[in-house]
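Milestone M4 deliverable, item 7.
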Amino acid sequence: MNLTGMVLFGSGSEWFWVMAQFLVLTLTGIGIYRQLRAQGSANALSAQASLLARWESSELVRLRLAALMDIATGKTGEPPTLSIVGNFFADVAALVTHRHLRPTDSWETWSGQVQFWWAVMGPWVSTFRAGNPGVYGEFEELAATMAELDRKEPRSEFRHQRCRPANRAGDRQADCAPPAGT
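Output delivered:
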């Protein structure tokens, strides 16, 4: 490498300053990209926490219970609170569809609930869609996506264990053994 005649300042140093600007702009771009990714992840976590808080709120728990009780009694017609639960999952589905939440991030938290409530709502979906054919379309897609993710990634790491509950004052942990055959 011949460094003879290399000029860093003054006439003939343009190459150095172009290279320095390129390096600075590249590093700035990488920093901005990483910041935007971190902000997007933080927003997704915040949205998940907000949805979970709403789902576990006493109001929505009562509405879910009322819907299930109406179904269990065998009354004909749509349970009056079922559409509120459906609208909640339509909101979750809209966030996933519009890429504010990734399906894989929502899968662990919402897969079972989405599929359960989609199955519960099944008999009334055609009634809902009579006036608006697209209603709950995103909810339906989300239920299908969650079912597909369940098939692709079974939750084998969440195996049930037989445990002896802690029953003495000094016994803080239960004795657990993996299920037979594992």
